[in-house]
Design a protein that fits this description.
By secondary structure, the protein is mostly helical. It is built from 13 helices and no strands. One of its GO terms (biological process) is chlorophyll biosynthetic process.
């Protein structure tokens, strides 16, 4: 007589999200760029922060944990089928965020974003509306801008860098930012298109299977990496030229040094785009955002 028990492996279906998975869903590692861009906007406005620290702090929290966190939850919900191929251990495909909880979290954070944005006055609220709209347009049907390797990273770059920069300047100055602030923020937002393109390298297999035309899929990794490097470098070169034109010589030299380090890192990246992209994201981008603050200091005078 067999005494071996029949083994029944059943996976218990969760009713509630796992707290750690919920935190992973909103990806704290992605919050820094828009928070930094908002601070660049504050600095570039050239206005004393005295008496405005609460609004500066609130804007930084809004740009990072709230709006950016919301965008990550929305993206993971809309990408759950792609993630089941690329990264099945993510919170939603792994079942740690069960049912429609991913959608509920994204919607709740959308409402929270609008509530907090309203506290920042007309400019802050208007920017929040744009940021929320961009987040959903990037990920959700029928727009789903991320289907395009051109429109998706472009929208994401402007929303991550240009919009919070302009918002930070507008909130502390209680009015429209200067032409210099708007122009510089747009240049860095355009450059961020290249950063977002590099981010697509980790999802080539799933994007191809689901019909998403990211640049690494449509151009191939080598050409996409070269294009991303050009997109990152050219706007910074224009910024350097503008700083020289505006007589900010030392700041221009500082940004030149930041770009020179990036160019060296790009040479390493281009030898093995798929293998070196994570390294570049951890190293090269640091000098990109350092150049942002140097530039903000220059135009904030």
């Amino acid at each position: 007589m067999s005494v071996a028990p029949a083994l029944h492996h059943s996976r218990q279906v969760r009713r509630w999200p796992e707290p750690r998975a919920a935190l992973r869903l909103i990806k704290p590692v992605t919050w820094f760029p828009p928070m930094w861009a908002y601070l660049c906007g504050v600095v570039s406005a050239g206005v004393s922060p005295t008496g405005q620290w609460f609004y500066i702090f609130l804007g930084v929290i809004l740009a990072g944990p709230i709006v950016c966190g919301m965008s990550q939850a929305a993206n993971d919900w809309c990408d759950r089928h792609v993630d089941a191929i690329n990264e099945p251990d993510r919170p939603i495909p792994s079942g740690r965020i069960p049912g429609r909880w991913g959608l509920y979290i994204a919607l709740a954070m959308t409402v929270l974003s609008l509530f907090v944005g309203y506290q920042l006055g007309p400019w802050g609220f208007g920017a929040t509306l744009l940021g929320v709209a961009a987040a959903w347009a990037y990920s959700a049907e029928p727009v789903r801008a991320k289907r395009s390797g051109w429109w998706g990273p472009g929208l994401c770059g402007l929303a991550y860098e240009s919009l919070p920069w302009i918002t930070g300047a507008a909130v502390v100055s209680a009015g429209a930012p200067s032409v210099q602030v708007i122009g510089i923020s747009l240049l860095y937002g355009i450059g961020a298109h290249g950063i977002m393109t590099l981010n697509d390298f980790k999802a080539i297999e799933g994007d191809r299977a689901m019909g998403l035309k990211s640049l690494p899929v449509s151009l191939g990794p080598d050409r996409a990496a070269r294009l991303a490097c050009w997109i990152m470098a050219v706007p910074q070169a224009i910024v350097i030229g503008l700083l020289f034109y505006w007589d900010h010589m030392f700041h221009a030299l500082g940004v030149t040094a930041m770009l020179a380090v990036q160019l060296g890192a790009m040479r390493v990246l281009l030898r093995d785009p798929e293998g070196k992209t994570p390294w570049y994201q951890g190293m090269g981008i640091l000098f990109y955002i350092s150049g942002m603050m140097i530039t903000a200091t220059a135009i904030g005078g």
